[in-house]
């Protein structure tokens, strides 16, 4: 099966963050061996599918298949950085969102346990992350345009041989500063909703991690829908930066033109999913 069609924001923290008792699952995961970033989505999916096949709500509910996995990267200084996948608490958050948003008939059909038990189980699993935050945020079928405000377009890493991959990395302090600046520009230029809210939420989320962390924007499984030539020519990050600068300068026409090009590109990606 292909990788899930998700894009990712990941936070990699220094190893010292996981030195204490709460870091035991991370250290155990490192001893087992890190997951490759291009396999992380499949690992998440497989854990959740195995739980569903055993009529369990979440990975680990029966004491099996709920091990923490990690992906790793290296800082520019050569230090090892770790991103726990946090599959179980992320799945719990998804269950709670499902319970809050979907109709009762769909909730009853989809849940392997009674709704009250599902809510209690998901809330309990979510507390397992303690005072921290999940290290991974995902988006299905697209990349939220505000995420591109965090990165330097020139620092894109493009790999076209197998496994194909597109990603950026940025120091967390730089990412937060860029998100906060972009939020101010967007609020002033187009209002408080939509992109401004995403930027505010992203900056708040990033603010919960160690200041020596690295943030990664990864196209993940979306590369399945984009051919090599299109990936080479993709300038989404540059267009977002240009749109922000145009809004800052009061040039609404240029900002709108950038947005239209972005909408065309990512609309075509979503269209390949619908047509394929």
Verbal overview:
The protein is of the alpha+beta class. Helix content is 48%, strand content 14%. It has ten helices and seven strands. It has helices at 24-32, 40-53, 87-101, 104-110, 115-127, 172-190, 195-206, 228-233, 236-248, 252-275; strands at 6-14, 70-74, 80-84, 136-140, 157-159, 165-171, 214-218. Strands 1, 2, 3, 4, 5, 6 and 7 form a seven-stranded antiparallel sheet that branches. The radius of gyration is 19 Å and the shape is globular. The two termini are 15 Å apart. The mean pLDDT is 91.
Largest sheet entry: 7 strands, antiparallel
The portion of residues assigned to helices is: 40-55%
**Helix-and-strand structural type:** alpha+beta
Number of helices, counting only DSSP H or I runs of 4 residues or more? 10
Instruction: State mean pLDDT (0 to 100 scale).
Output: 91
Shape descriptor reads globular
What gyration radius follows from the Cα positions, in whole Å? 19 Å
Q: Which residues sit in consecutive blocks of at least 5 with pLDDT less than 50?
A: none
Alpha-carbon distance between the two ends: 15 Å
Estimate the strand proportion.
5-15%
Number of strands: 7
Secondary-structure element series: EHHEEHHHEEEHHEHHH
Describe the SSE topology.
Layout: E1 6-14, H1 24-32, H2 40-53, E2 70-74, E3 80-84, H3 87-101, H4 104-110, H5 115-127, E4 136-140, E5 157-159, E6 165-171, H6 172-190, H7 195-206, E7 214-218, H8 228-233, H9 236-248, H10 252-275
Antiparallel strand pairs: 1-3, 1-4, 1-7, 2-3, 5-6, 6-7
Helix pairs in contact: 3-5, 6-7, 6-9, 9-10
């Amino acid at each position: 099966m292909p990788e899930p069609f998700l894009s990712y924001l990941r936070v990699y923290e220094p190893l010292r963050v996981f030195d204490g008792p709460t870091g035991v699952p991370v250290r155990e995961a490192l001893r087992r061996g890190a997951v490759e970033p291009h396999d992380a989505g499949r690992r998440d999916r497989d854990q959740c599918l195995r739980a569903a096949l055993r009529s369990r709500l979440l990975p680990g509910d029966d004491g099996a298949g709920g091990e923490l996995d990690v992906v790793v990267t290296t800082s520019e200084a050569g230090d090892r950085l770790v991103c726990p996948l946090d599959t179980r608490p992320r799945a719990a958050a998804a269950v709670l969102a499902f319970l809050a948003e979907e109709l009762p008939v769909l909730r009853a059909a989809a849940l392997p346990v009674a709704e009250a038990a599902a809510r209690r189980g998901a809330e309990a699993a979510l507390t397992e992350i303690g005072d921290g935050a999940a290290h991974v945020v995902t988006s299905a079928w697209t990349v939220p345009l505000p995420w591109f405000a965090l990165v330097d377009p020139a620092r894109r890493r493009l790999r076209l041989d197998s496994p194909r991959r597109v990603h950026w990395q940025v120091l967390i302090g730089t990412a937060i500063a860029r998100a906060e600046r972009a939020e101010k520009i967007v609020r002033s230029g187009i209002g408080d909703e939509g992109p401004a809210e995403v930027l505010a939420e992203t900056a708040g989320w990033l603010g919960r991690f160690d200041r020596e962390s690295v943030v990664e924007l990864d196209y993940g499984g979306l590369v399945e829908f984009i051919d090599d030539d299109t990936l080479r020519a993709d300038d989404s990050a540059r267009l977002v930066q240009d749109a922000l600068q145009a809004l800052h300068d009061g040039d609404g026409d240029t900002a709108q033109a950038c947005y239209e090009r972005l909408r065309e590109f990512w609309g075509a990606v979503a269209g390949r999913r619908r047509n394929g």
